[in-house]
Amino acid sequence: MSKTRTRRPPAPVTLEGRLRARYDTLPGSERGLADLLLNHPGRLATHAATELAAEAGASKAAVTRLIRRLGYASFAEARAEARDAQQWGSPVYLETDAPADATRDTAISRQLAADQQILARTLAALPATDLTASVHALATARRVVVIGFRNSAWLAMYAHSQLGLLRAGVDLAPLPAETLAEAMVGLGPADLVLALGFRRRVPAFAAALLAAREAGARIVLVTDPSGAADLRSADWTLTCHCRGPAMFDSYVAAVSVLNLLASQLADALGDAGRQRLQGVEQWHRRLDDLA
């Protein structure tokens, strides 16, 4: 007998989807507003109705009519949806306007200042107890499984490569051609999961944390401030700020925290870590695999 598949609920209708569905039927007074919001949907989160109207060359009444035509109960409801999209990390809602007189040097200066602030805020607020406990867990766990998806995947790869230089039993999950289940099988109370979860997280990430918790494994969570929902699954949490003035998130603080974990782990392992590093270097010489 064939199994009946449960149908997934429909995907939520976005502002862009509403605009495109009704675009051809919009009157001229509202089409300019639609063009503005299709190109810059983040404006809805940051601009008042009068500001949107002025930028689009329309009236405030036209803004109200468009919002109602799109199916929102009010401008406030539409703005709340746009702000949720910003918080979730959608790049199209995070676009910012560069100053009219911006030059390459100005852009570099803004980027430098933003990254410095992100790094300073992160390191200043890093909980010493969680950092110390995380390093101890990394040093003493039978096995360390490092997981991360999407934008966090390369951070997981970096953490795996650094920690693997210092101790055996560090696995990256999932590897290509491998499922997450195959990578996490056998986890127990003696093991540790190092979970990299920066927005926008996939459902598999929360599922992996819950499964690891149920298996009794300890969890170090490295996340951004939007990762509060996953905190209940973690034993220790290291929060890294990632939002600056640019469209895309910055991971300068995340890399620094992972570097800090690795260097603290090297100190904690002492001779054992140094011996493994020396062994790696010996194999480099045997294989002649570095220029």
Descriptors:
alpha/beta, Arc Repressor Mutant, subunit A, five-stranded parallel beta sheet, disordered N terminus
What does this structure look like?
This protein has 2 domains: 15-93, Arc Repressor Mutant, subunit A (Orthogonal Bundle), CATH 1.10.10.10; 115-287, Glucose-6-phosphate isomerase like protein, domain 1 (Rossmann fold). The protein is elongated, with a radius of gyration of 24 Å. It is α/β, with parallel strands linked by helices and 291 residues long. It has a 5-stranded parallel beta sheet, with helices on both faces. It contains 13 helices and 5 strands.
Question: How many H/I helical runs?
Answer: 13
Major sheet = 5 strands, parallel
> Could you name the CATH topology of the largest domain?
Rossmann fold
Give the tally of structural domains.
2
How far do the termini sit from each other? Answer: 60 Å
Query: Which structural class do you get from the secondary structure elements?
Result: alpha/beta
What is the molecular shape? elongated
Q: Proportion of β residues? A: 5-15%
| Low-confidence regions | 1-12
Task: Summarize the structure in short.
The protein is α/β, with parallel strands linked by helices and 291 residues long. 53% of the residues lie in helices and 9% in strands. It has two domains: 15-93, Arc Repressor Mutant, subunit A (Orthogonal Bundle); 115-287, Glucose-6-phosphate isomerase like protein, domain 1 (Rossmann fold, 3-Layer(aba) Sandwich).
